[in-house]
Design goal:
The complex is a heterodimer of chains A (about 270) and B (about 250). By secondary structure, chain A is mainly alpha-helical. Helices cover about 75% and strands about 0% of the residues of chain A. The radius of gyration of chain A is 22 Å and the shape is elongated. Helices cover about 35% and strands about 30% of the residues of chain B. Chain B has 9 helices and 10 strands. In chain B, strands 6-7-8-3-9-10 form a 6-stranded mixed β-sheet, with helices on both faces. A 4-stranded antiparallel β-sheet of chain B has the order 2-1-4-5. Chain B is globular. Chain B starts with a strand and ends with a helix. The model of chain B has no long low-confidence stretch (mean pLDDT about 90). Classes of the chains: A mainly alpha (about 270), B alpha/beta (about 250). At the A-B interface, helix 7 and helix 8 of A face helix 2 and strand 6 of B.
Chain lengths: ~270, ~250
């Protein structure tokens, strides 16, 4: 019964998440105006029929920029989470399966990376890399793979001692086969759940770096950079900050909640 | 004909800087078509001996010989060609995400012969429809019979049975014992059967080794040794088994 309820929640939240993704992917279709066209006659216009979310300091349509910015934020977040997941899972599985010096070395590197707050490391690295979306992704990715690696490693370590892995050894199966067929599918649910919960954090990280000028560079639309640009005139055009901020908060809540309910479902 | 031989096998483990002799100078032979029982209390080294024989654990000393060829140092991946391990917990010996068919066929080393597999399933009293199920959808007894089917399907000459009935209820234990009995009668089985259940060993095995603290206390023909034990430890084991059965 409890599981059924959680399943219903997962379906609803997944539907909202998919809608968010679709709206940003097809921003060209949904955006009422060009997000990059400036207009001296429409500077800081309050929300109206032509500009439902108003305009910014350069007369650009905030709704269109929010939609295009969502594409950048969500795509970059998914790409970063996927790359970190792939690197972390491979490293974790190899460490957990083989152990030895390779495992000790990588886990100590992971410990060192975890010793610093993720955002502090990201700011330093993004600063060294002179910002930009690629730089921001590398900066966040440097520490992000660690959580996937540690989780994959611990699950692999407990799995490799299971009897069915020994049975696969008696069947003459190679290490690569055992990792691909027996270990990876079995560690996938917990690591994937972790990936879902990381989406929100990564979005905050990317938007945060853009807000600080270390991520997406204007005029490119991105929620963090939009907030950063518009905060200078927040008192005269609060909508230019409000809508990208609301979009960020709403998207983060949706993906965090999705991660939570999936985790609840697994534990129920 | 001797199919498997172990000579002077020893294995030590280190636990908190303390050396523990899990096996000390154990020697044994297994004849073709024979079931060799290994009995002893928990911690007597029965399972370690089985792991050493199978290649899961490398012995510190001694020789392992299969059909006249030494196979010391070979890992499970290689020993699996001639011996198969049947584990105590049947559920954990199958990948929870794979169907039984995939898991069982895996032991065929790339050869897929469903007709042969169906024949084996019939021998162990299982319906072929169960192959489409996952381990969690089978009972403990069905899972253990599937383990036996997997071992037989591999074509291995020897089965290593590690307390294979201890996780099962009494009636299922009887079913598994009957299957092993039938396989033995049909001359299809050479096996080493580890158990702490002397009554079961008496029913199933031809010869028996009694182990204590990693050493062989005594060994001999099963019926003789159990009805007329020489060593005090064996007498105690037999007496406790009799008391339990009462």
């Amino acid at each position: 019964m409890k599981k059924k309820k959680i399943k219903a929640k997962i379906i609803v939240v997944s539907a909202i998440a998919i809608m968010l993704i679709l709206v940003t992917v097809f921003a060209d279709f949904f955006a009422p105006n060009d997000p990059y066209t400036t207009s001296a006659s429409s500077i800081r216009l309050a929300p109206c029929l032509k500009y439902p979310f108003g305009t910014d300091n350069l007369g650009r349509c905030v709704l269109s920029r929010v939609l295009y910015g969502g594409r950048t934020t969500i795509a970059a977040t998914f790409a970063l989470v996927f790359i970190s997941f792939a690197i972390g899972a491979i490293v974790g599985m190899l460490c957990g399966y083989y152990g030895g010096i390779f495992d000790k070395l990588l886990m100590r590197i992971a410990d060192i990376l975890l010793a610093f707050p993720q955002m502090v490391v990201a700011i330093v690295v993004a600063g060294i890399l002179n910002g930009g979306l690629g730089g921001a992704m590398i900066a966040l990715g440097i520490t992000m793979w660690v959580s996937f690696a540690r989780l994959s490693r611990s699950h692999t370590y407990s799995l490799k001692n299971q009897d069915f892995i020994k049975a696969a050894l008696f069947a003459g199966k190679s290490d690569l086969y055992i990792i691909a067929v027996h270990i990876f599918p079995n560690i996938l649910p917990p690591v994937l759940t972790n990936a879902l919960t990381q989406i929100g954090t990564t979005m905050i990280g990317l938007s945060g770096l853009s807000f600080l000028g270390l991520g997406v560079v204007p005029p490119a639309a991105e929620w963090g950079s939009m907030i950063s640009e518009a905060r200078a005139y927040i008192q005269i055009a609060p909508w230019a900050v409000l809508y990208p901020a609301l979009a960020t908060v709403f998207t983060i809540i949706v993906f965090n909640y999705l991660g939570d309910v999936v985790m609840d479902y697994r534990e129920a | 004909m001797t199919i498997l031989e172990g000579k002077n096998l020893s294995k030590k483990f280190i636990d908190k800087d303390k050396e523990i002799a899990a096996l000390s100078d154990i020697s044994f032979t297994l004849e073709e078509g024979e079931i060799l029982g290994i009995v002893g209390e928990s911690g007597s080294g029965k399972s370690t001996l089985l792991k050493v024989i199978s290649g899961l654990v490398v012995p510190d000393e001694g020789q392992l010989i299969f059909k006249g060829n030494e196979y010391n140092g070979q890992k499970a991946r290689d020993t699996g060609r001639f011996l198969q391990y049947i584990f105590q917990n049947p559920l954990s010996s199958f990948d929870p995400r794979l169907s039984m068919e995939k898991s069982v066929l895996e032991s065929g080393r790339g050869k897929k012969d469903l007709v042969r597999l169906y024949g084996i399933l019939e021998e162990v009293g299982l319906n072929k429809e169960l192959l489409q199920r996952k381990p969690s959808e089978l009972s403990g007894g069905q899972c253990q019979r599937m383990s036996i089917a997997r071992a037989l399907y591999s074509g291995a000459d020897i089965l290593l049975c590690d307390e294979i009935t201890s996780a099962l209820d009494v009636s299922t234990q009887a079913q598994i014992t009957k299957i092993l009995h039938n396989l033995k009668d049909n001359g299809k089985l050479s096996a080493i059967f580890v158990s702490h259940d002397i009554a079961l060993v008496r029913m199933l095995c031809d010869r028996v080794i009694v182990m204590k603290d990693g050493k062989c206390v005594e060994q001999g023909i099963c019926e003789d040794l159990i009805s007329n034990p020489h060593e005090e430890y064996t007498k105690k084991l037999v007496e406790s088994a009799v008391r339990q059965s009462i």
